[in-house]
Backbone:
């Protein structure tokens, strides 16, 4: 079992009314100087070993259905790939070298109230 | 014999009954089609109606676009079958790549429901041949995601090749690029628009009956073809 994440974002030249609404709400809450574009995140649990073919399938799925390439871009990244020794179930495996992993912040930023 | 016009019902379609009624009132023979099982055998033109197919999940029209009936529809549309997509039907046609561009959330971020002025920009389609070019009509518009977008090249091609069919006038209600309300494919047989001509066919329920000519257009086209 492997978890593959597909991030979908509206293309820069396409208007993003949702992002604009969020940007406006943040400004009203005092979070100045922040501009938001809103996308979607899909988490795919892929059965079995994550071979290159399986990853290519995910790519095709993203292109076919998850994203509309007319207005959106997408990125496919492996979040945790289970190896034959099954370690990944206990601890997320290290991402493969060629799969960039987006670092998550250590903690939620303070000042949310 | 009255032309047989199919109206496809998807899970979540809302305006299929109105579309069937509009076909009947304007002189056609309405044929209800279920998205999962029915074939297009003997159908002379197809309407994809408005609504919220599959709850608008993922993107409007993104899931309906893969309904079983769509495989046959895409083949027949490529062969010249007249197809009209209204509102959600327009979104489905864009998702199916039968029409270029896409429809996104209105720039005003609210659902818009109003009697909308439109200009007929092309009469060279089976769905607009009964209008006059430049004619101004008024048809109800009701949607949350009706903003037509496309890249600059596509817009240039649509404008240059006469593929803009309907344009908003007296105000752009949703941020559509170039005030585009409806377009057609290169061949002209596939037309999509956000406003609802099927709601403007009866003086009892609308300020105009301007929608009737959309349906009469296709009957004229079909009878001339035979």
Residues:
């Amino acid at each position: 079992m492997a978890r593959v994440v597909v991030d979908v974002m509206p293309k820069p030249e396409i208007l993003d009314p949702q992002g604009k609404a969020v940007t406006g709400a943040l400004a009203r809450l005092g979070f100045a100087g922040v501009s938001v574009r809103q996308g979607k995140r899909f988490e795919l649990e892929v059965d079995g070993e994550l071979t290159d073919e399986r990853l290519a399938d995910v790519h095709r799925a993203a292109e076919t259905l998850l994203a509309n390439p007319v207005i959106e871009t997408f990125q496919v990244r492996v979040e945790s790939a289970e190896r034959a020794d099954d370690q990944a179930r206990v601890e997320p495996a290290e991402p493969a070298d060629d799969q960039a992993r987006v670092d998550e912040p250590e903690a939620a930023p303070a000042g949310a109230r | 014999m009255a032309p047989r016009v199919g109206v496809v019902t998807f899970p979540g379609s809302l305006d299929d009954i109105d579309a069937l009624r509009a076909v009947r009132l304007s002189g056609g023979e309405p044929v209800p089609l279920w998205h999962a099982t029915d074939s297009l055998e003997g159908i002379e033109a197809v309407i994809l109606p408005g609504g919220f197919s599959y709850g608008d999940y993922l993107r409007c029209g993104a899931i309906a676009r893969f309904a079983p009936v769509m495989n046959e529809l895409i083949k027949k549309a490529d062969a010249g079958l007249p197809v009209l997509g209204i509102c959600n039907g327009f979104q489905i046609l864009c998702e199916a790549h039968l029409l270029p561009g896409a429809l996104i959330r209105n720039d005003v971020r609210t659902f818009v429901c109003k009697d909308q002025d439109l200009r007929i920009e092309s009469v060279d389609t089976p769905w607009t041949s009964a209008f006059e070019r430049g004619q101004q009509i008024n048809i109800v518009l009701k949607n949350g995601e009706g903003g037509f977008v496309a890249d600059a090249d596509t817009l240039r091609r649509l404008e240059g090749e006469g593929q803009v069919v309907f344009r908003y006038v007296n105000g752009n209600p949703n941020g559509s690029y170039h005030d585009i309300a409806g377009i057609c494919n290169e061949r002209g047989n596939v037309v999509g628009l956000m406003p609802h001509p099927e709601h403007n066919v009866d003086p009892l329920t609308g300020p105009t009956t301007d929608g009737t000519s959309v349906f009469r257009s296709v009957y004229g086209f079909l009878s001339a073809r035979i």
Observations:
- The radius of gyration of chain A is 17 Å.
- Residues 52-66 of chain A form the longest helix (15 residues).
- Helices of chain A lie at 17-28, 52-66.
- The beta strands of chain A are 2-10, 40-46, 72-81.
